[in-house]
Design goal:
Belongs to the zinc-containing alcohol dehydrogenase family. The protein is 24% helix and 23% strand. It contains ten helices and 15 strands. Helix 1 packs across helix 10 and helix 3 packs across helix 4. 49% of the residues are buried. The structure holds NADP nicotinamide-adenine-dinucleotide phosphate (NAP).
């Protein structure tokens, strides 16, 4: 492990502005925080939307990227969940803080909230980036989302419970993890992707896999009714339209969990009265989510067991370079990746 504490980051200078690599301040963790020496950091579609479209009100210059994996460098007061030197992964506070740069993942040292830090054992840092998201767990198991039955922490799926979930977009980073978790909990999974990603979805455990662009997919999924849970991990008109068509003629109340607000997700797709879309806005500090948060992020919890034992499956991680590659990563995400988690390794010299 290098001993230098000189920090370096990929800064975005302003909304929709250029990205440049230059030094950043080194911060020590405050109460309830952890300082991580970053070995791998993720870039996600939200980073591309901020960098290319300026979708959020952030304080600039700032540092994008989430989640982050590396070694614990220091812990703040009241933190006993992890120890210095431990290998961990964590979500970041870059968006919830409004862009405070010390919380962005695309740098060599980052401050995170201890509640989000999870030990990963010997799992490779890029793999941890691809598999550690809280979002799919929240979508499936949060009381304010699908509120499905949680799996036991085990690589062996629970006995089939006879309930079905449609996970539209199974080759997305969020969709792939959702398939894995739903299967482990004993659900029957129906999912969609492009045909070249069918082997991935099969490996994740999907029971029924359909071509997202094939006109016959709507009628084939209709044949699988009843479907108990609906999750659109893409949440664009290209996904909401076929889901609406699948639901055409259904009279019961249906709620579809989405991951984007209507303003960004093809608001032109009109659903009948009985079908509602609900964007996942998971607040891990909300009282109603504390039981779930403890179950997934607590010491020895579901994510820690899954990551250290290596049985959580998602899309493959692709390390594209060091901090100098952040701009390229943003471009690739903006154009759209296929079954890939884009990863940066900030100590690589490029
Ligand atoms: N609300 C939240 O808390 C939250 C959290 C995380 C992410 N998000 C949002 O959720 C969305 C997904 O994020 P992500 O990281 O999972 O995305 P991603 O991995 O970058 O998504 C890429 C995948 O999307 C698939 N895809 C694109 N259009 C599709 C369609 N019409 N039908 C089915 N699949 C389609 C592609 O499939 P093929 O290549 O197989 O065609 C590709 O594999 C993003 O918009 C992100 O901003 C929201």
């Amino acid at each position: 492990m290098a001993s230098s504490r000189d920090n370096l980051a990929a800064w975005i200078v302003e909304a929709k502005g250029r990205i440049e690599v230059r030094p950043s301040e080194f911060f020590m963790p405050e109460k309830g925080e952890v300082l991580i020496r970053v070995q791998a950091s993720g870039l996600q579609p939200a980073d591309a939307k901020v960098a290319k479209l300026g979708i959020m009100n952030l304080k600039y210059p700032t540092i994008l990227g989430s989640p982050v994996a590396g070694f614990v460098e220091a812990v703040g007061e009241d933190v006993d969940k992890v120890k210095v030197g431990e290998r961990v992964v964590s979500g970041t506070m870059i968006f919830t803080s409004g862009g405070v740069a010390k919380f962005g993942a695309s740098q060599r040292f980052v401050i995170v909230d201890a509640r989000e830090v999870v030990p990963i054992g010997n799992t490779a840092f890029p793999t941890a980036i691809a598999t550690a998201s809280q979002t799919p767990l929240a979508a499936l198991y949060a009381p304010g989302a699908l509120n499905m039955s949680r799996p036991n922490p085990s690589p062996n799926p629970a006995p089939a419970n006879g309930k079905k979930i449609l996970i539209w977009g199974g080759s997305s980073a969020m969709g792939a993890l959702s398939i894995c978790y739903a299967k482990l909990a004993g659900y029957t999974v129906i999912s969609t992707s492009s045909p070249h990603n069918f082997p991935l979805l099969k490996d994740l455990g999907a029971d029924y896999i359909f071509d997202r662009s094939d006109n016959s997919t709507v009628s084939k999924i209709k044949e699988l009714f009843p479907i108990d849970y609906w999750f659109d991990t893409i949440s664009l008109s290209s996904s909401l339209t076929p889901i609406r068509d699948i639901l055409d003629g259904v009279k019961e109340q249906v709620e579809i969990i989405t991951l984007l607000p209507p303003s960004m997700s093809g608001g032109e797709v009109v659903f009948p009265e009985n079908v509602k879309t609900k964007m996942l806005l998971f607040r891990n500090k909300a009282e109603e989510n504390q039981d779930l948060v403890q179950w997934m992020l607590g010491k020895g919890g579901y994510l820690e067991q899954g990551l250290t034992e290596g049985w959580i499956k998602g899309v493959p991680a692709e390390t594209i370079g060091g901090l100098g590659a952040v701009a390229e990563g943003i471009e690739r995400l903006h154009k759209g990746v296929s079954a890939r988690k884009i990863v940066i390794e900030p100590w690589i010299e490029q």
